[in-house]
Amino acid sequence: MTAPDKLSEAEASDRLAFLAAEIARHNALYHTDDTPEISDADYDALMRENNAIEAGFPELVREDSPSKVVGAAPAGNLTKVAHAQRMYSLDNAFADEDVTEFVDRVRRYLKLAEDEVVALTAEPKIDGLSCSLRYEQGVLVLAATRGDGSVGEDVTANVRTIDDIPDRLTGAAPAVFEIRGEVYMAKDDFAALNARLLDEAEDPAKARQFANPRNAAAGSLRQKDPGVTASRPLRFLAHGWGEASDLPADTQKGVMDAIAAWGLPVSDDLVRVEGAAPALAHYRGIEARRADLPFDIDGVVYKVDRLDWQKRLGFVAKAPRWAIAHKFPAEKAQTTLEAIDIQVGRTGKLTPVGRLVPVTVGGVVVSNVTLHNADEIARLGVRPGDRIVVQRAGDVIPQVVENLTRDEELPAFIYPDHCPVCGSEAVREEGEVDIRCTGGLICAAQRFERLRHFVSRGALDIAGLGDKTIEEFLELGWIKEPADIFRLAAHRDELLTREGWKEKSVENLLAAIEAKRAPDAARLLFGLGIRHVGAVTARDMLKRYTTLPAIRALGADIIALREATPQALAEEDGRYRNRLDKAVAEVIGVENVGAAVGHALADFFHEPHNVEAWDDLLREVSPPDFIVETQESAVSGKTVVFTGSLETMSRDEAKAQAEALGAKSAGSVSKKTDLVVAGPGAGSKLKQAEALGIRVISEAEWAQIVSDAG
């Protein structure tokens, strides 16, 4: 991976598009499906890379940037409910220096004196499912999951079965008060639940087993049947609040004390400290007792104690400026690598998977670990038989962090040059770390994964077509490509004779398929699984091109461009590639969609089998033209630059106001700039704006725009 400061603008745009799609996929797996694929550490690494690129290229920040997104869209099996106040996530700290910088950043933002104490609350960050409890006149009227932060799922009936959550608050509470916290499952209760599920199963081999307490809590709370939730040992711990008609105190600690007095559990380890040093001391104390706590935690959360300061600090796109989560280091254990197998993914990526002598890490038995790619295997020098160190960061997918033996006398693992599933050639493209099967839809492994992706929630979202059903229909030869799904009605009578299928389930499946005959064009394009074309990129492209035939025409144009742009005899490979990439990006003409997407489209449509599958699908479905409704406001969609000294607010506060009004805040003036807010001492940026004829206003005029927006 190229360092952010070494990327060209086109490369940065391509990488941001990839990261937006990849992080959105992992958000959905974690928040919606409760089946995370990567560790918290790997997820945080993706987020840090995204944020670093955005910092270097602020003009490339996407509308759906992961830095602006909280959680994932709610699933479809529960009623959706809008939050009265957004449920934010938290920014992370990974080192003591990050916590010290957080306190310093608060001081700078508020323009506090160096000797003024910044008091914080510090409490364990419990690993559960975020939930908001709305009380009106002291009575519980609504409980909702976080979802994507704006819209969650109504779980009121299920929450009423949790003993920790009272139907009525004790004492005098405000007329409206939303209490927010985590629904979780204690470690002992989690072990007992898995044991009970195993004991109750008719076939122990097929018994439902939860991977960890967080997944168990999420799966238990988000049930259609409250009776199932009632049978699960769920707990609740409050850590904050949302909408409130009144507040019982003017500090974070004071309000949390009131919530505890009203009858909601609050952490015994919630304390008030003055400054970074005592906060870090509290962190060390909790970390030392982590293994002895009855529930899983993954860090400590610090919040500015004064509520008036919290209000001034406000929020960035996805998190408050007045809080931060200090994460614990990953847990580790030693074991032996027994074998390395190759798995083939939806895009043909050949991923090596290490098979381990089972080892317990952080309370969970680990027997498999991803080795990512050939470069990672070479870096670690791992061979079957080596002793390795495995870590689990965030209690999800483990990773190898060290090879203890590096025994070169052991047989080395030979990375295959052909797909182990279909036998097609496996190649590594220029500039890529991954090796991919070239078989496309003729590869059975890719066929399953691509069909699975096609019907997934983010794509066509066809209910009833789960993994086992897709596998069954593939084995029967009923489906090979997406279009075949829409011809399953021809197998109705035969399906009724198969074990596990009843008339109602067959009719429900066929009805769900028929309901997708006019799908959203962006979802359909995303569902085809074209490399680099994630959900956000698909929407961005269809905002510009409107129809799928226009997308196909674009692919043909890029194929023609590549054929008409040969490499000059003495031209270096890198220079030629940059020249071609620039031309491809210009043909696409979509902001934040770079050459990598264009090349992927051209590669897709250059393969005759893909063209046949595309044409076949469009004979079965008729997606309407893609039209996006926009809301106009004074600065919505405009790019604003602040320059000079601001007298009534800090620069960060001004940028936050712009983003809250739907504008993009940039750090430099260019032809794309729409508005410059100039304070005293404005220099080169003001001169540049005047030279370009860009509108310039004062800080007072900006304040009026903010006021007019309400």
Automatic annotation (TrEMBL):
Biological process annotations from GO: DNA repair; DNA replication
Task: Indicate which residues the UniProt annotation says bind NAD(+).
Answer: 40-44, 89-90, 123, 146, 182, 303, 327
Name of the top EC class for this enzyme: ligase
Any idea which UniProt keywords this protein has? DNA damage, DNA repair, DNA replication, Ligase, Magnesium, Manganese, Metal-binding, NAD, Zinc
Give the record's GO CC terms: cytosol
Domain BRCT: where? Answer: 630-702
Does the keyword field hold Ligase?
yes
Domain of life, source organism: Bacteria
Can the keyword Manganese be found in this entry's annotation? yes
Q: Which GO terms describe its molecular function?
A: DNA ligase (NAD+) activity; metal ion binding
> Which Enzyme Commission number(s) are on file for it?
6.5.1.2
Q: Which HAMAP family match?
A: DNA_ligase_A
Q: Cross-referenced NCBIfam families, in alphabetical order?
A: dnlj, PRK07956.1
Q: What is this protein called?
A: DNA ligase
Q: What is the source species? A: Sphingomonas montanisoli
